[in-house]
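I have a small job for you when you get a moment. Can you supply me with one protein entry, sequence and fold together? It will help me judge whether the discrete encoding reads sensibly. Write everything out right here, beneath this request:
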Amino acid sequence: MNAHAPKPARRRGSAAEEARLAIDQAEADGVARADMTLRMTLRDVSELKRDHKVPMADIRYGPDGMTYLGVAVDQGGVTQSTLDRGDTGYVRGAAEAAAAQPKAKPARKKAVRKAAPAEAAAD
């Protein structure tokens, strides 16, 4: 018996091809592109940006971040790129918002000076 989860199937295409396939499948299942979020590893995002086969019109940058084929892209924070169809509890951009909040620093303790021993003061 193996207590570990089985390894995911190895990817056969580029990050762009796999994302396009997942988006097309979700759209065929009736999911709107506005509800979808591509949760991609940093490596896959880098590969997507550098892929010469991807038309420049497919990738857009805006105030809300990067989109690929009209689907929002969340970069990093995952070990394997997946398409969130909007039917999970995942909230787009929640990790970035939590990281952007300032962290409270613990209060520094004041140094306490030790009194000199009474014998040393008497000499």
Observations:
- Residues 16-85 form one domain.
- The helical segments are 15-28, 42-50, 94-100, 118-122.
- The longest strand covers residues 71-75.
